[in-house]
């Protein structure tokens, strides 16, 4: 597999979303947003706190929020997918790891719940061993 080639094939939207999310997450942008709100509040008495004055901030914030939801979701999805691939690779290369755990996010909810219960039992057993003064290392199996 040629990973270098694959990594360069990102859509224009993905690039835009990543750059926009990165830009919007900066303190400078947050400070600018606070500044806009402060300016809006200061202009309240000038416009006699009119309906139009309120409509301006409501419309502006609604539009920005609506668009940001999609940008944030895209970035979140990309980050989650990248983390999943990295975790899958760690499982794949770890001696003694269960390869059945690869790509768990694609399983049916019931199957995923079975795995979760299995690992909850392992965690409970490990805590009991700790309470008895034993080490919390190794590969316990249920």
Describe this structure in words.
The structure is a single chain. With 142 residues, the chain is mostly helical. It folds into 2 domains: 13-98; 107-142. It has 5 helices and no strands. It has helices at 3-8, 12-24, 27-43, 51-93, 109-131. Helix 2 crosses helix 4 (51-93). It is elongated. It starts with a helix and ends in an 11-residue tail after the last helix.
Low-confidence stretches: none
- H/I helix tally: 5
Helix fraction, binned, reads over 70%
Rounded to an integer, what's the Rg over CA atoms? 25 Å
Distance from N terminus to C terminus (CA atoms, Å) equals 36 Å
| SSE string | HHHHH
Shape: elongated
Summarize the structure.
The chain has 142 residues and is mostly helical. Helix content is 72%, strand content 0%.
Please supply descriptive tags for the structure shown above.
142 residues, 2 domains, 5 helices, 72% helix, 0% strand
